[in-house]
Design brief:
Length: 295
């Protein structure tokens, strides 16, 4: 009887897991959450369902429920630094950066208390910790973790680009930033983000011709990236070509009408933001219709 009951529970759990995955794929986060909650009510230590429910809560922007789930999860998970790292990465993916940063700090405390037992803090860990720090405005803190990431994994081009772009944004350590982004481009020469970073470093070094060349390459690969298009406008302005600058900023704004920095630049030039927002909305609707047709 015990074996039969166990098999039945496992079979039901597998069916519910498939249903939950289907609902998640359809974007029905709340419904998926109810399914995973049902599984956990019968199998409280089901790690997969716990993490899937956490995802469902975050995607449904139910941050409080996610925090409660973490607090109420079985102690063998809740107190495990590895489990908390997985959760921290999920917070990062959902763009809850302060929550991720707090969790990373908690992991550090737990690892210190255990005197580094079961050490797992690799380059991926330091990349995530650095990203959380940067997004929360802790720039020097983030730099240390990205540097540590690169020390542990000399081929981590994502970290090299992230750190190089951080420095370019601040106009700091530009020679080192140039070294890193060139190494990243050696690994991925056709990466639009990396080409944009290179162009932005040249821009900060007051080398607009070289900046223009790299940013145009980036746009040739990824023409719909609003930040890259904004950079193109900034470079044109530095080259005393205001008409081309405004045209580039307009394209950037249509791609991302929520950009405050581009809005300010366009307002200063007397551009009609209402018309550009209308164009952005029309493009969004066309894109949605095109997506439905392709389905």
């Amino acid at each position: 009887t015990g074996l039969k009951r166990s098999t039945t529970v496992e079979s039901l759990s597998a069916i519910c897991q498939r249903l939950g995955a289907t609902l998640m794929a359809a974007g029905r986060w709340a419904a998926a959450g109810r399914v995973y909650s049902a599984i956990l009510s019968r199998v409280p230590d089901d790690l997969g369902s716990c993490l899937n429910l956490f995802d469902a809560y975050l995607l449904a922007t139910n941050k409080n429920a996610a925090a409660a789930l973490l607090a109420d999860s079985p102690a063998k998970y809740r107190d495990n630094p590895r489990f908390r790292f997985v959760v921290a990465r999920k917070y990062l993916q959902a763009e809850y950066y302060s929550e991720a940063l707090d969790l990373f700090a908690d992991i550090e405390k737990k690892m210190e208390a255990s005197k580094g037992k079961d050490e797992f803090r690799d380059s991926v860990y330091h990349f995530g910790y650095g990203m959380a720090g940067e997004r929360c405005g802790r720039i020097e803190f983030a730099e240390k973790h990205f540097e540590r990431c690169i020390e542990m994994d000399a081929g981590n081009h994502n970290a090299m680009n992230y750190l190089a772009y951080m420095w370019a944004e601040r106009g700091a350590n530009l020679d080192k930033a140039l070294e890193y982004i060139r190494k990243a481009l050696d690994i991925e020469p056709a990466n639009a983000a990396y080409l944009d970073t290179l162009g932005w470093i040249y821009y900060r070094q007051n080398k607009p011709d070289q900046a223009l060349e790299q940013v145009k390459k980036a746009i040739g690969i990824a023409p719909d990236e609003p930040v890259v298009m904004e950079h193109l406008g900034d470079i044109y302005m530095a080259m005393s070509q205001p008409d081309k600058a405004v045209e580039s900023w307009k394209k950037s704004f249509v791609l991302d009408p929520e950009s405050k920095s581009v809005a300010k630049k366009l307002q200063d030039r007397g551009a009609n933001l209402a018309q550009l927002r209308k164009e952005a909305e029309e493009n969004r609707k066309k894109s949605e219709v095109g997506g439905q047709k392709s389905e």
